[in-house]
Amino acid sequence: MAQVGSILEQVEATSFMTPVKDMMADAIVHGWEQQLKDIHDKLINSSVHGAVGRAVDRVEHGVGGLMKRMCELGRNLAGSLPSEPDLSMYEVGWLPPVLGGGHVAGVDKHGRVEHAIVSMLEGYAREGAAEAPRIGVYGIGGCGKSTACAEVATCERVRTLFPLGTVWVQLSDTSTSETVATAILALVYRFCGEAATKRCQQLTGRKDFVALAASDFQASLMVDASKWLIIIDDVRYEQVGMLTQLLLVVSRTTPVLFTTRSQIVVALVTGAVRLSISSWPEDDARALLARAIGKRPRAIGKRPTENEPVFSAEEEAAWVRRVLDLTQCHVLSVSIVAALLSARCGMWRPIVAALEHQWTDPSFQRPLTDMNPMRSVRATLDVSRGYLPNDDYRRAFAAVGILPANEQIGLHVLDRLWRPQLGVIGDAAEGACPSRLKRRSDGSDAVHPSTLRLLDALVRAGLLHLEVADGDLAGVVIHPVVCGYAHSLLCEDGVATHHRLVHEYTRECPADDADTHGWLSYHVWAAADDGYWYNNVARHAAASEDVLALASLMTDEWYAARARTGSLVGHQADVALVLASLRAIVDDEDHSAHNSPMLLGAAHWGLAMGLLHYKGYQTAAIQEAAVILLRRGLDEVSQAAAPFLWAEMQNDLGNVYSYRVNGDKAANFQKAVRCYYNALEVRMQDTLAWAETQHCLGMAYADREGGNKAANMEEALAYFRRALDVRTRDAAPLQWADSNLKMGAAYAARVDGGRAANLQEAMACYRRALEVWTRETAPLQWAAAQQNMGRACAERVSGNKAANIEEAVAFYRRALHVRTREAVPLSWALT
């Protein structure tokens, strides 16, 4: 404008230019480009001379620049003038995503989250409640939350319930307060119309915009708010504030459905109903796989039946079951497999082979190929892992991979597992966290606060789910896909982590009678069962490939511990796992155990005991296999190198010979006694190991078929008494009860002495055993003692015969409370 003023001053020097000056001023004020051009033309066409001519020459050069600047000025002035707001951005978008072919409908299927959501919405509409529900759907990444909500929004039942439509608000990692403001304006546009939207647009710069928009929203409603459905997708923990702002604007009569990875997000929304989603039902996963290979659920021309299987038994075994197990029916994982199958026209063999080799492969360096779907699944979980604060939290998450999935995990287990992280995570005011459990005032263990902080971070990231019971945090649940993903992050540290957890549980247990090599250093039965240890120690021992830990699980002490908790089925599972692990170690000549004769001998001993625990002593084939394995173990281990292990194998070989079916009975008895005396060369007198061999000798003589029966029973009673000199109730209550039970059976079969007195002595032994064996603490042993009491009463010669029989029946009935047909069918039949 300074240049314009200078030109005007020059033009004003002549009276001739006064009208021109006025026209230019008018053009400047109004920004009229055409008028400036007209002025320029008049000046050029003028033929005046002298001063005016010189002025015209100067103006001619100045007006060109003036016109250029005035054009820019005109455009700027036009841009600053009030214009009609553009509301088109609130008309397009904000609609549910379109579902593709990789989705199996679920709104009509019980067990699917889609069905649960629609049922809730229909219940709200039917009851006419004053306030609509807020439904939070939470689950790990890729579990199908968004597609479930998209199906709900577009299904006919929901479109009937909400005829005005669905507003879909999509959040993401880049969502900000501007995203929220835009979403609020879109809601105002639909619910309140253009006028209210224009008013709210003018308020977006104010700090109290949300509150003002909410007030205007409630005052300007032009439609029935209950006829709309709002879905807010993918709310992160850090975006709870955004969710709260959006809910503040929404009418309480409008149902809201939102999705999140973190269950805490749902908990922070007052009154929200929680729905978890983890995977598809197997039948729906099968349906998607069938669709991918172009398979119909029935043969052409055949009438459909309601429960007709999609795949044949052969197909299930060949590949379908394997895919379901690998993916755990995780929606994204199944969809990836289906896409690969479809791309290869149903050729499942290379797909399944690739899955089994690559699904948990930790490598990030290979290029992404169609045959490497793992990285696509990993990517969605990496997003969640990226929400963790630092590497310490990420290492803690990786360690979670060694824990079983779909199971409540006690916090004490996580505390043990995360002890390496506890020393570095914590508030600065607290200092370094001690690597041990805190003690409560009542003496029980309490989880360290740093563990709770780790757990809280993992839950916020959507990697774990919490289980609450009676107002307390009872444990955490890990999705199988997350568990496998976390395990893959451990890589070579996985074996060490399993080993460390076993050590953490057993390091404070007594470890007497240990060889220099540490034989039987894992007294796994001495650790208290905390609801996790007993059910998972075998899995950790197998994963750590620790021969000594595996062999320790084949001891009679571990069997007694499992029986004491009434979990013989669990013990059978332990044995099966140990057998498989030890077989793999023995068969693998490159395994480090083959470099140690003691470890190799222990592996053979564990295999022998595992077979006997798994199949029992009564099968001839199992007995012979056990004899071979124990002899091989003794070939590996010398008495001098590992005396306690050598003595253990001698004692157990004697037990096998005592029960042996094949061969001469007298010869087997002699071999058994010889093995027991070999063990006594090492087992020092008055130790529990020595007492065990004395007990075994008593059983061998009590069951001896040859020789003098009376002498055999007297010899057996003598050995039992020697065992009980060491196996006292205070020192070894369970073994004390066992020796009393066996000695009672010997008294019941005794030849010398009066029959009545022997039976009374037998019943006294059984009663002593029942002082320790209760139905709650040792149900199977308690039932065995009840069985023996019943037999003794039935054979009793003193007292009233009818009363004795009634008492016997009562004992048998008590035994049957534990000896059920389902739990122990053979014992049930015997009783």
TrEMBL record:
NB-ARC domain: residues covered: 134-292
Gene Ontology CC terms: cytosol
GO molecular function, one term: ADP binding
Pfam families associated with the record: NB-ARC (PF00931)
Protein name: NB-ARC domain-containing protein
Species per Swiss-Prot/TrEMBL record: Porphyra umbilicalis (Purple laver)
